[in-house]
Amino acid sequence: MKRKVTEILEGWKSSERRNCLLIRGARQVGKTYSVEEFAESNYKHHLTVDLSLDERARSVFDGDLDVDRMILGLSALFPEKTLDPYDTLIFLDEIQDCPRARAALKAFSMDDRYDVIASGYLLGLRKNDVPSHPVGYEDEIRMDPMDFEEFLWAMGVRQEVIDHVKGHVARAEPLSEPFLSAFSEYFRWYTVVGGMPAAVQSFANGKRFDSVRRIQGDIIRNYKDDVAKHAEPSERMIVGRCFDSISVQLARDNKRFVLSQVQPDSGSNLGIDRYRYPLDWLENAGITLPCHNVTEPALPLEERRLGDRFKLYMFDTGLLLSMYDPNLVFDVYSGDMGVNKGAIIENLIATMLYRQGRQLLYYRRDRDVDGRTDRMKSDFLITTADGLVAVEVKSGSNRNCRSLNKVMDRYGLDGIMFETRDIHIDDKGVRHYPLFAAAFMDCIDPPRVIDPDMRDVDVLNAIFD
Question: Which of 30, 50, 145, 208 could pair with 195 in a Cys bridge, judged by C-beta atoms 3.0 to 4.6 Å apart?
Fold first, then answer.
C-alpha cells in the first residue's frame, strides 16, 4: 500500500549529506513494510536485522562500535547478503531492544559508507538504556497510522479525484453531490477501519468489517501485553487502567480526562504527579494524543496551557471504536456520527489535525459569573497564518454554533466547524466543512514557506569582491 513516508525516505536518500534515519512510531503502523519496500526499490543491496528476535545480531554491537568490525560481524551472520559500501541500506528494526545499536548510529553517520535506517517504539521510555545518544548524528521522523488520503489510495481512489476535492476545500467552495456523498461514505469506512495497515489491507481485500474488528482486537491485546512486559512493575496496573479509561471518559459530555475516574476505588483523589508516569508511558508508546486546555484562547497558546486539564485521544480511531460495543460499527456505517456523544468523531478529527502537525489544544470554561451562566468552549484551537482559529466538531444533527460564536465574539477569533453538511460560510463568518475535510486542513491553511531574501547579503559581499 502506498504510504507518504516513502516520499520522505526518498528525500532523505537524495540529500547530499545524510545522518542515519530513526523512525519512531507505535507498533504495527507499517514501519518495517515501508522501509523494506523502499530498500527494495532504491538500493542494490539491503539487509534487515530484527533486533528484537535475533540475539546473535545484538551481540554484533557488544564490542567496539567500529564500522568495519560491525559490518564484518553482520556479514558473518548473514553470509547470503552482500554489503557493498555506498550501495547498501542496513535496516535495524526494533532498535529499542539493542541500546548499543542505537549508540552505533553515530559511527555509521560519521563513516558515511553505509546508509542506515533504524526503527522502533518505546524509544522515549528506554532512552536511559542507551550508553551514548547519537545527538547530531541521526535524523528522526515519526510514522503514524495511515491517514485519510492514504486510506483513499488503498480504496483505489485516483489522485485527480482527491485533488478535485482538496481544491474545493482550499477555496471554501461547495462540492457537487456525487463528491460529497462518496467522500462522506469513504469517511465512514475510515472511521470504522482506522489507519492500521493490517486493518486497511483486510478491508481493501474483502470489504468486511468483522475481519477488521478481529485484527483491531489483536492489536489492542498486543498493546496491553506491552504494558505488562515493558512498564515498570509497580506501575503496570495503573498504566493499564489509564488505557482502559480512555474510551470511557471520551464518551462523556465533558471529554476531559478526569484522573479520579481512573481508580475510583483508590480511596483518595490522586493528583497529576501520581499519574505522570502512566500518562507519559502511553504517550511515548505512541498510543495516546493528549489535548490540553488553555486558560484563554489567545496567543501564545503554549504559555496558557493547563498541565492538569486535558483530553486524552487514541492515536487510531478504528482501535478506539473497537473498544466499544460492536453495534456502534453499524451505527457509524449507517451515518450516525454522533454515537457515544461524539467521542468517535472528535477523536478522529484530533488525529487528522495532529498528523498535519497541528498542536492539540482546546478551550473550555465551565463557570458562573455574578450568578449568571458564562460557559463556552472550542473543541480545538489552531494557529494559522491569519491568527488563532476556534474549531468546533458537530457529529450529530444539532448544528447550532452558539458556543463557537460566543468564543469568536468574546476573543475576536475566526471560526471553523466540521460537520456533516457541504462547504459553506454562514452569516457570522464561520467556515463550515464536511467532517472529512479535517484531513485536508493543510489545504484550508497551507503551511508557510519561508524564503529568505539574500539580496542584502549579496550586496555586502560584493563590496569586498
Answer: 145
